[in-house]
């Protein structure tokens, strides 16, 4: 176990990663039938201990290059990317992406947690061998260094843009990555937050990291803080050198920066074509070795010279143990529970709604459960219950992954946990919720609508409702991972309506053509309705109540009801088995589609 005093040592990142080098990198995408070259054979080198910026006009290919270097984009690429090390000569591409972190342009933070809680969760997910006191110390230290200590107990949703950006960085600093990639870390920040952000990155670079970020038009002072500028235009590299060499470089091709003009603005104006198309000329000039960036101080010397006041974990001796997936699973379960408790729209409000709708439907269909004259109204009640619960389970499920996808993608990519761990935690967490919501609805509607007062029948109805909810939410999850929320909700609503048509009530099974009858096998609503009918009218239930006001009760015998509905076979457990199968199938498909969606950039 790592001790507190070990942490308080001024330990820097390991020196396995001296530079990242890429050669002749090309990235192509098929757009309609044509092939679009987004990155066109670029090469370059980024060094540790240096702050490097990828710049260029909008659409130049900055984000695409960053995605390639991070390993976020893996298809459509050619060329070589190497990460060299003074100690290990064969430090491969895969190895460095595992040890790097990628901070995306969008912050992707869980809104309902405080800064400290986010940090502690990240710490628990990333580090196993630290006592809680050490973790506390580490978190406080990082927050202090990133000037976030005052916002420690503020929820993420109330943080300013700059604070969110710093928190995104702080979360990744917990396990002290030697390489950090940041996509437009200053976008949306005011000038003072931008300065703070770049100063922080500079400080982190001086601690021995390779820091590469994309950036839009910094002011002259900030521009000079970057050690290396990698300028892109039309997917090509038009300058790769020290920021202080920008003006001489442009002069060498006859482009003289006006006095008192910000060199960053000037080079951006040039590459944007304001002075004509200089892309070919600049690309050629940028090949010359004299402009290429070479650090003036070796990393080792930098470390000797600069006092890094950020305290981090010692990775040199590989003392950081990552937690087991089981521990991560438990942390994710806890995170889900806190989120559920704090988001009253998905917990308290839903519970109250289920209770009220249950009472409303119970009162609407009062006495229908035992009255022989109201058998068809009771069928209506059972169907309404299924439709209500299916829709209220499916629609939130359609939105579940689209709203969490960006956070999941970021955390999964940065090795916080495996997708299977996340999905297992979500599954385990989702089931009790569906059980609770079904229970609240079932209790509030079952007795008022006068269904049979037998515990076993109540439990059978309850079980079918749970399984219907789980099937519907599984179906919603698939839609949510396959398409965008608007289309997902549309397709979901239409499909449920179709399932309802062949559910066995609007047209009873014996009245369907054989082709239509086949459709009932793909409708979980029809199996659920059959199960409910069996639970309420099957299993040798005694005669129904017939009021004296009625001249004749056709459905005095419950068996008669089942027979006329074409549900006389005792199929309750077959229905349950079908619904279990649907549940497993839908969840498995949703997992595969989620994995596929995550792999897509
Ligand atoms: N998956 C894709 N399919 C087709 N074109 C793409 C794809 N990804 C990026 N592009 C195109 O490649 C070009 C470069 O995109 P990229 O996002 O890398 O630019 P950028 O320099 O980061 O721009 P910005 O500063 O506006 O974010 C753009 O024209 C973009 O439309």
Automatic annotation (TrEMBL):
Looking at the UniProt entry, the stretches that span the membrane are 351-369, 381-402, 422-449, 461-482, 488-509, 516-537, 572-594
Q: Where in the cell?
A: Membrane
What topology in the membrane does the UniProt record assign?
A: Multi-pass membrane protein
Q: Which residues form a coiled coil?
A: none
The record's annotation in Pfam families points to:
ABC2_membrane, ABC2_membrane_7, ABC_tran
| Alphabetic keyword roster | ATP-binding, Membrane, Nucleotide-binding, Transmembrane, Transmembrane helix, Transport
Lineage top rank: taxon? Eukaryota
Q: Where is it mostly found?
A: membrane
One annotated GO molecular function is:
ATP hydrolysis activity
Protein name per its UniProtKB record: ABC transporter domain-containing protein
Per the record, GO CC terms?
plasma membrane
Residue stretches making up the ABC transporter domain: 20-259
**According to its UniProt record, which protein family does this protein belong to?**
Belongs to the ABC transporter superfamily. ABCG family. Eye pigment precursor importer (TC 3.A.1.204) subfamily.
